[in-house]
Amino acid sequence: TAAPRAEDSRMVALRHALAIRARAGEPAAQYATARSWLGLTPGATVAACRPDDADRRRAVAWFETAARNGHRAAAYALGDAYEHGRGVAKDEYRALAWYQRAAKAGHARAFFRIGTFHDFARAAYRKEDAIAARWYAEAARRGSCEARVALATMYARGRGVARDPAVAFALYS
Q1: What is the full per-residue pLDDT of the chain (173 aa) written as tens digits?
Q2: At 171, is the secondary structure helix, strand, or coil?
Q3: Which of 47, 76, 108, 133 has the highest CB neighbour number within 10 Å of its CB?
Q4: What is the model's pTM?
Q5: What is the phi/psi pair of residue 8, to 5°?
Q6: What is the distance between the alpha carbons of residues 51 and 35, in angstroms, rounded to a whole number?
Q7: CA distance 78 to 116
Q8: Distance between CA atoms of 40 and 37, rounded to whole angstroms?
Q9: Residue 50's beta-bridge partner residues?
Q10: Dist CA 101 CA 60 (whole Å)
């Protein structure tokens, strides 16, 4: 069977419970409301229901509200939305700006995503392996597994860092 639509009674009840806190300006409730429009319940990684384009646009609006109120995961989510064109027009420059805001607030995956912009010459950046390696290293230091893999690959190939198979192996491990 197909996943239920976002109008599913569970999601409606969840959004209703969050609405009072979200409208009162609580960033965590605003972020949770955005996630609910994507079919995600608090703490969930798999959607309980399928969002449509209107739901994604609602989610982006709530992510932006939460991000402007200082919620770092919401800033990261906005970067992701703009990078992939989910609920908004695809715009790498806006994606990068939101990732930078999230990184400034300490979001580990945002450091990784900024590294990919340097690694693959995206948005305003030229391909700069050494700068990408620094962003990956900071993301890895903050716990990003995908950044560890990217950095390990750079050490294995000597891209942007001195080639060092032992460091690559340690990072892969």
Answers
A1: 344 455 667 778 888 888 889 999 999 999 999 998 888 877 777 777 778 888 899 999 999 999 999 999 999 999 999 999 999 999 999 999 999 999 999 999 999 999 999 999 988 788 999 999 999 999 999 999 999 999 999 999 999 999 999 999 999 99
A2: helix
A3: 76
A4: 0.87
A5: -50, 140
A6: 10
A7: 16
A8: 7
A9: 5
A10: 16
